[in-house]
Hints:
The structure holds two protein chains of two kinds. Chain A has helices at 2-18, 21-60, 78-85, 89-114, 118-124, 204-207, 209-215, 219-237, 254-263, 265-275, 289-299, 301-312, 315-349, 363-366, 385-399; strands at residues 150-159, 180-183, 195-203, 242-244, 250-251, 278-287, 354-357, 371-381, 404-412. By secondary structure, chain A is of the alpha+beta class. Chain A is elongated. Chain B is rod-shaped. The chains are: A alpha+beta, B mainly alpha.
Amino acid sequence: MNEMTSRLRRKLEDSLAELSNEQIAALIEEARDEALAEAKAVIKGTMVQAILERALGEIQNPKPALSPGEVPKAQSPKLTSETSLLDSEEQIQQEIEAIRKKIAENERLLSQVKASPVKPVLERSEGTEEVQGPPAGQELSAPSRGEEDHGYYVYGVVSDVGKTGFPKLPEEGIDPAHPVYALQPSAISHQPSAISAIVSKVSLQEFGQEALEANLEDIKWVEAKVLAHQRILDQVLAHHTLIPMRFCTIYQSEGRVQEMLAQHYDDFVAALARLEGKKEWGVKVYCDGKTLAQRVGEISDRVKELKAEMEQRSSGAAYFLKKKVDEAIAAEVEHVSDEYAQRSHDRLSGHAEETIINPLRSREITGRNEAMVLNGAYLVAEEQLTAFRAELESLEQEYGDLGFIYEMTGPWPPYNFVSIGLEESSADERVGG
Amino acid sequence: MSELVVKEKEVTLLDLLDRILDKGVILFGDVTISVADVDLIYLGLKVLLTSIEKADKMRRAAAAQYSQHST
Lengths: 433, 71
């Protein structure tokens, strides 16, 4: 900082010798602007540090996890500041430790909460072949005394299969030792059920609470299992309207699954009706900053003005003008980015029944050089799909030159368009991620 | 097996994780994954991506060194 200041001062003295009063005034004003910007950057850096330290403190001393009715945040600003935290492996280890402590805390709270609701079910559960699961208040883990040692993994819920028959389901569930099958709720009044759950048995050696916690730390295990989960749903999605469950929704007996179906029966039926004939598609838009900056330099009037002025000035003044040009370009790039991301979303939304904008993902987690500018999910009816795709192609053609890159994924089960059960979830806002 | 293929796989995994961990029907099963578990998974993904990136850099550095020596 000192070196820079004295360099600037010397330069100032030299230039002052040749400048008129007017030029001196302009010079001083520009210097002042820059000094303010620099000071702002330093203050910002200090604030970022303070915020990070507080966040880490929060992670190590967690508040209770349950936060009913909490809607996930639209933005996760902590994500980008986290990147400086994860500079070295050491810091990654520290973060893992902090999260482990949080898991232990959550486990404790969960076992307290589970103490009440589970008990009545064990008494009511009839007509199934299931042996009683673990006593109320305890987690579902692989027991030591040879009791029921399986859980029931639920992939999703589909509309009635009794009439239309069911396509061949995979031989292997997410636990390859057991097949996937459809399970109906126990009789609701006198009517046959309109829904079925897609389930498979899973070993608690792998999917019990403790084992699961350990396995979730192994990204390879997670990858294999989420892919298995998705492959199973893909087969179902091809032939049925489907409500997907979150990863690892596991119950201790068929009776418990049926109870869950009964509890949310009306919600499931309503959602299936709403989702009929529609599928979810994801569109992500990225921006190649260098390309866009170049284009902006060619297109923007303001930038062109500044550049022309730059060429006519002496080297001293030109130095400061160059900074203005760079700033103008950066501001314009940001403005254009935002505007075109919004335009893209609006145009695509015109061909979708429902839409949602999800948080952007940082470069660290996408592994890309370009910044993400839009992360959208679209619920598109079959009859709209052609127009939706055509719109995407038009966007690519029109905006591709500016550096915008479009990626579409799908079809997906409508993960982004169901809201059953959120009020019960313990999944309040995620930290980073 | 090029790095591009690996990268594509990671992007698809992210697309999948973004849906399956945090969306869909979220109910209290008898076994649960917590917020912290989800954090750990994304952390694992970052670590994986970081190590892929580091491996890339090392490979490129080695390749650059090699081409220097050979000219």
